[in-house]
Protein backbone atom coordinates (compact mmCIF):
# COMPACT_ATOMS: atom_id res chain seq x y z
CA UNK A 1 0.00 0.00 0.00
CA UNK A 2 2.74 2.39 -0.89
CA UNK A 3 0.80 4.08 -3.68
CA UNK A 4 -1.38 7.13 -3.19
CA UNK A 5 -4.46 6.77 -1.06
CA UNK A 6 -6.65 3.81 -1.95
CA UNK A 7 -10.36 4.39 -1.76
CA UNK A 8 -12.42 1.74 -0.04
CA UNK A 9 -12.58 -0.64 -2.94
CA UNK A 10 -14.24 -4.03 -2.94
CA UNK A 11 -10.89 -5.76 -2.50
CA UNK A 12 -9.92 -3.48 0.40
CA UNK A 13 -13.28 -4.23 1.99
CA UNK A 14 -12.76 -7.98 1.62
CA UNK A 15 -9.19 -7.85 2.94
CA UNK A 16 -10.17 -5.79 5.93
CA UNK A 17 -13.22 -7.90 6.73
CA UNK A 18 -11.23 -11.08 6.57
CA UNK A 19 -8.48 -9.67 8.75
CA UNK A 20 -10.93 -8.29 11.30
CA UNK A 21 -13.03 -11.44 11.54
CA UNK A 22 -9.95 -13.57 11.99
CA UNK A 23 -8.69 -11.23 14.70
CA UNK A 24 -11.93 -12.02 16.54
CA UNK A 25 -11.17 -15.71 16.20
CA UNK A 26 -13.72 -16.49 13.49
CA UNK A 27 -13.14 -19.14 10.88
CA UNK A 28 -13.96 -18.27 7.30
CA UNK A 29 -14.74 -20.86 4.67
CA UNK A 30 -14.65 -19.33 1.22
CA UNK A 31 -16.48 -20.74 -1.76
CA UNK A 32 -16.22 -18.32 -4.63
CA UNK A 33 -17.79 -15.08 -3.45
CA UNK A 34 -19.62 -16.79 -0.57
CA UNK A 35 -17.97 -16.72 2.81
CA UNK A 36 -19.30 -18.80 5.64
CA UNK A 37 -18.16 -17.17 8.85
CA UNK A 38 -18.18 -19.52 11.80
CA UNK A 39 -17.92 -17.84 15.17
CA UNK A 40 -16.26 -19.34 18.23
CA UNK A 41 -17.88 -19.49 21.62
CA UNK A 42 -17.67 -16.30 23.69
CA UNK A 43 -16.75 -14.09 20.80
CA UNK A 44 -16.41 -10.44 21.74
CA UNK A 45 -18.58 -8.93 19.02
CA UNK A 46 -22.10 -7.63 18.99
CA UNK A 47 -22.26 -8.00 15.25
CA UNK A 48 -21.48 -11.69 15.14
CA UNK A 49 -23.47 -13.45 17.78
CA UNK A 50 -23.93 -16.39 15.47
CA UNK A 51 -22.49 -17.72 12.25
CA UNK A 52 -23.22 -15.74 9.13
CA UNK A 53 -22.91 -16.14 5.38
CA UNK A 54 -21.44 -13.20 3.51
CA UNK A 55 -21.79 -12.64 -0.20
CA UNK A 56 -19.07 -10.46 -1.72
CA UNK A 57 -20.70 -7.83 -3.90
CA UNK A 58 -24.28 -6.64 -3.93
CA UNK A 59 -26.12 -9.70 -5.15
CA UNK A 60 -27.17 -11.52 -2.01
CA UNK A 61 -29.79 -13.98 -3.19
CA UNK A 62 -31.25 -15.21 0.06
CA UNK A 63 -32.47 -13.45 3.14
CA UNK A 64 -30.14 -15.34 5.43
CA UNK A 65 -27.04 -13.87 3.78
CA UNK A 66 -25.36 -10.51 4.26
CA UNK A 67 -23.90 -8.47 1.44
CA UNK A 68 -20.28 -7.43 1.70
CA UNK A 69 -19.33 -4.29 -0.23
CA UNK A 70 -18.22 -0.72 0.65
CA UNK A 71 -21.78 0.54 1.26
CA UNK A 72 -23.35 -2.59 2.70
CA UNK A 73 -24.85 -2.26 6.15
CA UNK A 74 -22.83 -5.24 7.36
CA UNK A 75 -19.54 -3.60 6.37
CA UNK A 76 -20.50 -0.23 7.84
CA UNK A 77 -21.47 -1.92 11.11
CA UNK A 78 -18.18 -3.83 11.07
CA UNK A 79 -16.21 -0.58 10.68
CA UNK A 80 -18.09 1.04 13.53
CA UNK A 81 -17.53 -1.92 15.77
CA UNK A 82 -13.85 -2.14 14.85
CA UNK A 83 -13.23 1.54 15.56
CA UNK A 84 -14.96 1.23 18.91
CA UNK A 85 -13.15 -1.89 20.01
CA UNK A 86 -9.87 -1.75 18.09
CA UNK A 87 -9.11 -5.42 18.64
CA UNK A 88 -5.47 -6.29 19.14
CA UNK A 89 -3.58 -9.47 18.45
CA UNK A 90 -0.16 -10.93 18.02
CA UNK A 91 1.48 -12.86 15.23
CA UNK A 92 4.87 -14.48 15.29
CA UNK A 93 6.51 -14.74 11.91
CA UNK A 94 8.94 -17.59 11.54
CA UNK A 95 11.41 -17.30 8.72
CA UNK A 96 9.86 -20.22 6.89
CA UNK A 97 6.38 -18.68 6.97
CA UNK A 98 7.18 -15.82 4.68
CA UNK A 99 8.44 -16.35 1.18
CA UNK A 100 11.68 -14.54 0.37
CA UNK A 101 10.83 -11.06 -0.83
CA UNK A 102 12.99 -10.00 -3.74
CA UNK A 103 13.37 -6.19 -3.76
CA UNK A 104 11.64 -4.40 -6.61
CA UNK A 105 14.91 -3.12 -8.07
CA UNK A 106 15.90 -6.75 -8.62
CA UNK A 107 12.48 -7.88 -9.82
CA UNK A 108 12.49 -5.19 -12.48
CA UNK A 109 15.91 -6.15 -13.79
CA UNK A 110 16.92 -8.92 -16.16
CA UNK A 111 19.56 -10.14 -13.75
CA UNK A 112 18.94 -13.68 -12.60
CA UNK A 113 18.68 -14.34 -8.87
CA UNK A 114 20.28 -17.74 -8.66
CA UNK A 115 19.79 -18.17 -4.94
CA UNK A 116 18.65 -16.25 -1.91
CA UNK A 117 19.56 -17.30 1.58
CA UNK A 118 18.35 -15.56 4.70
CA UNK A 119 20.23 -15.88 7.98
CA UNK A 120 18.21 -14.54 10.92
CA UNK A 121 20.21 -12.97 13.76
CA UNK A 122 17.69 -11.56 16.18
CA UNK A 123 13.97 -11.04 16.90
CA UNK A 124 12.30 -7.71 16.37
CA UNK A 125 8.78 -6.47 16.91
CA UNK A 126 6.58 -4.43 14.62
CA UNK A 127 3.13 -3.04 14.98
CA UNK A 128 0.72 -3.21 12.05
CA UNK A 129 -2.18 -0.81 12.44
CA UNK A 130 -5.14 -0.82 10.11
CA UNK A 131 -6.68 2.61 10.05
CA UNK A 132 -9.76 4.14 8.57
CA UNK A 133 -9.36 7.69 7.38
CA UNK A 134 -12.37 9.71 6.38
CA UNK A 135 -12.24 13.10 4.77
CA UNK A 136 -15.55 14.84 4.85
CA UNK A 137 -17.29 18.17 4.69
CA UNK A 138 -20.59 18.67 6.44
CA UNK A 139 -22.26 19.29 3.13
CA UNK A 140 -21.27 16.98 0.33
CA UNK A 141 -18.02 15.08 0.31
CA UNK A 142 -17.07 11.95 2.15
CA UNK A 143 -14.12 9.83 1.19
CA UNK A 144 -13.27 6.72 3.14
CA UNK A 145 -9.83 5.22 2.99
CA UNK A 146 -8.45 2.10 4.61
CA UNK A 147 -4.72 2.12 5.21
CA UNK A 148 -2.26 -0.16 6.94
CA UNK A 149 0.86 1.22 8.59
CA UNK A 150 3.64 -1.05 9.85
CA UNK A 151 6.20 0.35 12.24
CA UNK A 152 9.20 -1.29 13.87
CA UNK A 153 8.58 -0.76 17.58
CA UNK A 154 12.20 -0.04 18.45
CA UNK A 155 13.54 2.02 15.54
CA UNK A 156 10.09 3.42 14.58
CA UNK A 157 11.01 2.92 10.92
CA UNK A 158 8.12 2.23 8.57
CA UNK A 159 8.02 -1.21 6.98
CA UNK A 160 5.92 -0.84 3.81
CA UNK A 161 6.63 -4.39 2.62
CA UNK A 162 5.21 -5.74 5.86
CA UNK A 163 2.01 -3.76 5.30
CA UNK A 164 1.58 -5.45 1.96
CA UNK A 165 2.52 -8.92 3.06
CA UNK A 166 0.75 -8.81 6.42
CA UNK A 167 -2.62 -9.93 5.15
CA UNK A 168 -1.15 -12.72 3.07
CA UNK A 169 1.16 -13.82 5.85
CA UNK A 170 -1.65 -13.93 8.37
CA UNK A 171 -3.97 -15.71 5.95
CA UNK A 172 -5.62 -18.99 6.95
CA UNK A 173 -3.34 -21.07 4.74
CA UNK A 174 -0.56 -20.31 7.16
CA UNK A 175 -1.47 -21.56 10.56
CA UNK A 176 -1.46 -18.35 12.52
CA UNK A 177 -2.89 -17.47 15.85
CA UNK A 178 -3.86 -13.83 15.34
CA UNK A 179 -5.94 -13.84 18.51
CA UNK A 180 -3.00 -14.27 20.82
CA UNK A 181 -2.76 -11.21 23.05
CA UNK A 182 -0.21 -8.45 22.66
CA UNK A 183 2.88 -8.16 24.83
CA UNK A 184 3.47 -4.45 24.29
CA UNK A 185 2.62 -2.11 27.16
CA UNK A 186 -0.36 0.13 26.39
CA UNK A 187 1.68 3.33 26.75
CA UNK A 188 4.09 2.22 24.01
CA UNK A 189 1.20 1.24 21.76
CA UNK A 190 -0.37 4.67 22.20
CA UNK A 191 2.73 6.55 21.11
CA UNK A 192 3.11 4.31 18.05
CA UNK A 193 -0.55 4.84 17.21
CA UNK A 194 0.14 8.58 17.07
CA UNK A 195 3.02 7.91 14.69
CA UNK A 196 0.75 5.71 12.53
CA UNK A 197 -1.96 8.38 12.58
CA UNK A 198 0.45 11.10 11.39
CA UNK A 199 1.85 8.78 8.74
CA UNK A 200 -1.62 8.09 7.31
CA UNK A 201 -2.43 11.81 7.19
CA UNK A 202 0.89 12.35 5.46
CA UNK A 203 0.23 9.64 2.88
CA UNK A 204 -3.29 10.81 2.08
CA UNK A 205 -2.30 14.49 1.97
CA UNK A 206 -2.77 14.48 -1.82
CA UNK A 207 -6.35 13.28 -1.47
CA UNK A 208 -7.00 15.77 1.33
CA UNK A 209 -5.67 18.60 -0.86
CA UNK A 210 -7.82 17.51 -3.78
CA UNK A 211 -10.99 17.37 -1.70
CA UNK A 212 -10.05 20.67 -0.12
CA UNK A 213 -9.75 22.30 -3.54
CA UNK A 214 -13.04 20.80 -4.64
CA UNK A 215 -14.73 22.05 -1.48
CA UNK A 216 -13.18 25.52 -1.91
CA UNK A 217 -14.46 25.69 -5.47
CA UNK A 218 -17.94 24.67 -4.32
CA UNK A 219 -17.81 27.31 -1.58
CA UNK A 220 -16.59 29.97 -4.05
CA UNK A 221 -19.44 29.11 -6.41
CA UNK A 222 -21.96 29.39 -3.59
CA UNK A 223 -20.53 32.73 -2.45
CA UNK A 224 -20.68 34.01 -6.03
CA UNK A 225 -24.26 32.82 -6.45
CA UNK A 226 -25.23 34.62 -3.27
CA UNK A 227 -23.40 37.77 -4.38
CA UNK A 228 -25.26 37.77 -7.70
CA UNK A 229 -28.61 37.33 -5.98
CA UNK A 230 -27.88 40.29 -3.74
CA UNK A 231 -26.70 42.33 -6.74
CA UNK A 232 -30.02 41.55 -8.39
CA UNK A 233 -31.86 42.73 -5.28
CA UNK A 234 -29.81 45.95 -5.31
CA UNK A 235 -30.88 46.62 -8.90
CA UNK A 236 -34.53 45.98 -8.02
CA UNK A 237 -34.32 48.36 -5.08
CA UNK A 238 -32.68 51.06 -7.22
CA UNK A 239 -35.48 50.74 -9.74
CA UNK A 240 -38.21 50.88 -7.10
CA UNK A 241 -36.58 53.91 -5.52
CA UNK A 242 -36.36 55.73 -8.82
CA UNK A 243 -40.08 55.02 -9.48
CA UNK A 244 -41.00 56.24 -6.01
CA UNK A 245 -38.92 59.35 -6.46
CA UNK A 246 -40.71 60.13 -9.77
CA UNK A 247 -44.10 59.65 -8.10
CA UNK A 248 -43.09 61.91 -5.22
CA UNK A 249 -42.02 64.58 -7.77
CA UNK A 250 -45.45 64.29 -9.42
CA UNK A 251 -47.15 64.71 -6.07
CA UNK A 252 -45.01 67.78 -5.34
CA UNK A 253 -46.31 69.39 -8.51
CA UNK A 254 -49.87 68.38 -7.70
CA UNK A 255 -49.61 69.87 -4.23
CA UNK A 256 -48.59 73.26 -5.69
CA UNK A 257 -51.35 73.45 -8.28
CA UNK A 258 -54.45 71.76 -6.90
CA UNK A 259 -57.39 72.73 -4.71
CA UNK A 260 -57.71 72.13 -1.00
CA UNK A 261 -59.25 68.61 -1.03
CA UNK A 262 -56.86 67.24 -3.59
CA UNK A 263 -53.95 68.83 -1.77
CA UNK A 264 -54.81 67.08 1.50
CA UNK A 265 -55.10 63.80 -0.35
CA UNK A 266 -51.78 64.35 -2.16
CA UNK A 267 -49.99 65.33 1.04
CA UNK A 268 -51.21 62.15 2.69
CA UNK A 269 -50.05 60.06 -0.26
CA UNK A 270 -46.68 61.81 -0.36
CA UNK A 271 -46.11 61.04 3.30
CA UNK A 272 -46.82 57.34 2.66
CA UNK A 273 -44.49 57.23 -0.31
CA UNK A 274 -41.73 59.00 1.58
CA UNK A 275 -41.93 56.43 4.38
CA UNK A 276 -41.77 53.65 1.82
CA UNK A 277 -38.83 55.39 0.12
CA UNK A 278 -36.95 55.67 3.37
CA UNK A 279 -37.44 51.96 4.21
CA UNK A 280 -36.28 50.80 0.80
CA UNK A 281 -33.38 53.23 0.84
CA UNK A 282 -32.26 51.90 4.23
CA UNK A 283 -32.39 48.36 2.88
CA UNK A 284 -30.37 49.41 -0.15
CA UNK A 285 -27.73 51.19 1.96
CA UNK A 286 -27.40 48.18 4.16
CA UNK A 287 -27.08 45.78 1.20
CA UNK A 288 -24.49 47.94 -0.55
CA UNK A 289 -22.46 48.19 2.59
CA UNK A 290 -22.48 44.39 3.07
CA UNK A 291 -21.67 43.90 -0.59
CA UNK A 292 -18.67 46.22 -0.35
CA UNK A 293 -17.40 44.19 2.58
CA UNK A 294 -17.96 40.95 0.63
CA UNK A 295 -20.87 39.64 2.74
CA UNK A 296 -18.53 38.46 5.54
CA UNK A 297 -21.12 36.67 7.67
CA UNK A 298 -22.57 34.74 4.78
CA UNK A 299 -19.06 33.85 3.57
CA UNK A 300 -18.12 32.58 7.01
CA UNK A 301 -21.26 30.46 7.13
CA UNK A 302 -20.66 29.01 3.63
CA UNK A 303 -16.95 28.35 4.22
CA UNK A 304 -17.68 26.65 7.55
CA UNK A 305 -20.14 24.38 5.78
CA UNK A 306 -17.48 23.37 3.27
CA UNK A 307 -14.64 23.01 5.78
CA UNK A 308 -12.87 19.65 5.83
CA UNK A 309 -12.96 17.24 8.66
CA UNK A 310 -10.25 14.58 8.54
CA UNK A 311 -10.71 11.71 10.94
CA UNK A 312 -8.32 8.82 11.37
CA UNK A 313 -9.32 5.90 13.58
CA UNK A 314 -7.38 2.71 14.25
CA UNK A 315 -9.43 -0.38 13.44
CA UNK A 316 -7.11 -3.21 14.40
CA UNK A 317 -3.67 -3.38 15.95
CA UNK A 318 -1.45 -6.40 15.51
CA UNK A 319 1.88 -6.96 17.09
CA UNK A 320 4.18 -8.89 14.81
CA UNK A 321 7.32 -10.60 15.91
CA UNK A 322 9.71 -11.02 13.05
CA UNK A 323 13.30 -11.93 12.50
CA UNK A 324 16.06 -9.70 11.24
CA UNK A 325 19.35 -10.71 9.79
CA UNK A 326 21.05 -10.75 6.43
CA UNK A 327 20.22 -12.17 3.07
CA UNK A 328 22.66 -13.34 0.48
CA UNK A 329 21.60 -13.00 -3.13
CA UNK A 330 23.62 -14.81 -5.76
CA UNK A 331 23.18 -12.89 -9.00
CA UNK A 332 24.06 -14.00 -12.50
CA UNK A 333 24.02 -12.34 -15.90
CA UNK A 334 25.74 -12.93 -19.23
CA UNK A 335 28.42 -15.21 -17.80
CA UNK A 336 29.19 -12.96 -14.81
CA UNK A 337 28.12 -13.57 -11.27
CA UNK A 338 28.09 -11.49 -8.16
CA UNK A 339 27.02 -12.11 -4.56
CA UNK A 340 25.53 -9.40 -2.36
CA UNK A 341 24.76 -9.58 1.33
CA UNK A 342 22.26 -7.07 2.74
CA UNK A 343 20.01 -6.50 5.73
CA UNK A 344 16.72 -8.38 5.59
CA UNK A 345 13.72 -9.18 7.75
CA UNK A 346 11.15 -11.95 7.46
CA UNK A 347 7.96 -10.50 6.00
CA UNK A 348 9.65 -7.11 5.94
CA UNK A 349 11.96 -7.64 2.99
CA UNK A 350 15.24 -5.89 2.38
CA UNK A 351 16.00 -3.37 5.12
CA UNK A 352 19.03 -1.76 3.55
CA UNK A 353 19.58 0.41 0.51
CA UNK A 354 22.06 -0.66 -2.14
CA UNK A 355 23.84 1.93 -4.25
CA UNK A 356 24.90 2.04 -7.87
CA UNK A 357 28.71 2.13 -8.04
CA UNK A 358 28.59 4.70 -10.80
CA UNK A 359 26.09 7.42 -9.73
CA UNK A 360 25.85 6.52 -6.05
CA UNK A 361 22.04 6.60 -6.09
CA UNK A 362 20.15 3.86 -4.31
CA UNK A 363 18.43 1.26 -6.42
CA UNK A 364 14.67 1.48 -6.56
CA UNK A 365 11.77 0.29 -8.68
CA UNK A 366 12.45 3.15 -11.12
CA UNK A 367 16.22 2.92 -10.85
CA UNK A 368 16.62 -0.80 -11.13
CA UNK A 369 19.78 -2.87 -11.35
CA UNK A 370 20.86 -3.32 -14.94
CA UNK A 371 24.33 -4.81 -14.92
CA UNK A 372 26.59 -6.66 -12.50
CA UNK A 373 29.64 -6.63 -14.74
CA UNK A 374 32.32 -4.58 -13.02
CA UNK A 375 30.12 -3.63 -10.03
CA UNK A 376 26.38 -3.07 -9.65
CA UNK A 377 25.07 -0.34 -11.91
CA UNK A 378 21.62 1.14 -12.40
CA UNK A 379 19.89 1.26 -15.80
CA UNK A 380 20.67 4.97 -16.23
CA UNK A 381 24.40 4.45 -15.81
CA UNK A 382 24.44 1.49 -18.19
CA UNK A 383 22.85 3.64 -20.89
CA UNK A 384 25.36 6.40 -20.22
CA UNK A 385 28.23 3.97 -20.70
CA UNK A 386 26.76 2.97 -24.03
CA UNK A 387 26.48 -0.72 -23.18
ZN1 LIG B 1 23.69 4.68 -11.49
Topology:
Blueprint: H1 10-23, E1 27-31, E2 34-38, E3 52-56, E4 65-68, H2 73-85, E5 88-92, H3 104-107, E6 112-137, E7 142-152, H4 160-169, H5 186-203, H6 205-257, H7 260-292, H8 296-305, E8 308-333, E9 336-345, E10 349-350, E11 369-371, E12 377-378, H9 379-384
Parallel strand pairs: 3-4, 5-8
Antiparallel strand pairs: 1-2, 2-3, 6-7, 6-8, 8-9, 9-10, 11-12
Helix pairs in contact: 6-7, 6-8
Mean pLDDT: 85
How many E-type strands? 12
What series of H and E elements makes up the topology? HEEEEHEHEEHHHHHEEEEEH
Which stretches are poorly predicted, pLDDT < 50 over at least 5 residues? Answer: 1-6
CA distance, first residue to last residue: 35 Å
Given the structure, what is the number of helices?
A: 9
Small molecules held by this entry: zinc ion
Q: Give a quick account of the main beta sheet: strands, pairing sense, barrel closure.
A: 6 strands, mixed
Helical amount? 40-55%
Q: Assign an overall shape.
A: elongated
Rg result: 34 Å
Percentage of residues in strands:
25-35%
Judged by helices, strands and strand pairing, the structural class is alpha+beta
